[in-house]
Amino acid sequence: MNARIVAASASGLVMSVGLCLSGITNPTKVLGFLDFLGRWNPTLAFVMLGAVATHSLLYRAITRRARPILDAEFSVPTKTALDWQLVVGAAVFGVGWGLAGYCPGPVIAALGSGGSAALVFAGGMLGGMAAYGVWSRGPRTLASALGRGAAPDTRTSGARES
Amino acid sequence: VDLPAIAEALVGGVLIGAGASLLLLFNGRLAGVAGIVAGLLQRSPGERGWRAAFVIGLLGGGIVFGWLRPSAFAPSPVSLPLAALAGVAVGVGARLGGGCTSGHGICGVSRLSRRSIAATLTFMSTGALVVGLLHILRGTP
């Protein structure tokens, strides 16, 4: 268990240094990147290029192993069908991203610097996630959505995908 | 063309991909930040440790950069109420859509997942539309 925690925190740290260095923690740059219809700033396209090139190579190498180093199996989603939840969810996500220029990883890294916009955005994001949890499971699981219970999770593949 | 910014974007991207690969190699998990954070809100206690550790790593990198280079964290140009509303949209959207910019945009696209490619094209499009609409409403170029 301790080794898993060390590995996960190292992974979060490396990712965070990458996010901060790349410029994606700066909302003005993000909004410039999304400004296809105006003055497009393509710099952040290179973040995606670097990340996808690296991870697609390493993903293939790593999943050739029988199992991860610290667990019994890889947890990778198997769902392939497109559904309305995927499209509507991604559309709503994009609206929030385009409004403020933050998405989940960069905003958590930005919390470390103590900006009020990042704090308020992250509060709204956690509230939205908790509200979705309540809506998708029904009111009886309110306690678990707030982190006090251990309700069985039937949406594993969706959760792991993200 | 701002070459240093492009180099930093590329190296930053490589580190993001490397961090995601570490999580896969050791823990067998995809580094979708929204899913990891949401799991902290609702999963069984046994699943919470590595998720919390990952989030602490994310926060730690931000704290280090806050010292070294505070300019990496220019505040969002929008008002705080709008930032809160945007946060709610990102939280609900990421859960309903099963992922965010890291889970779909990086991990999913790297796996060539059809769902993730569709999600990435969708959130890039609506994001661009919102940015364009705001320019029109505010009368900015």
In a few lines, what is going on in this structure?
The complex is a heterodimer of chains A (162) and B (141). Helix content of chain A is 64%, strand content 0%. With 162 residues, chain A is an all-alpha fold.
Notes on the protein architecture:
The complex is a heterodimer of chains A (162) and B (141). With 162 residues, chain A is mainly α. Chain A has eight helices and no strands. The model of chain A is unreliable at 148-162 (pLDDT under 50). With 141 residues, chain B is mainly alpha-helical. Helices cover 77% and strands 0% of the residues of chain B. Chain B is built from six helices and no strands. Chain B has helices at 3-27, 33-42, 48-68, 80-96, 101-110, 114-138. Chain B is globular, with a radius of gyration of 17 Å. Chains A and B meet through helix 1, helix 2, helix 3, helix 4 and helix 5 of A and helix 1, helix 2, helix 3, helix 4 and helix 5 of B.
Number of helical segments with 4 or more residues of chain A: 8
* Percent helix of chain A: 55-70%
Rg for CA atoms of chain A: 18 Å
Q: Kindly estimate the percentage of residues of chain B that lie in beta strands according to DSSP.
A: under 5%
Largest sheet of chain B: none
The count of DSSP E runs of length 2 or more, i.e. the number of strands of chain B, is 0
> Could you give a short account of the major beta sheet of chain A?
none
Shape type of chain B: globular
Helical fraction of chain B equals over 70%
H/E element sequence of chain A: HHHHHHHH
Figure out the total of helices of chain B: 6
- Which two chains share the most extensive interface? A-B, 129 and 121 residues
* N- and C-termini, Cα separation of chain A: 23 Å
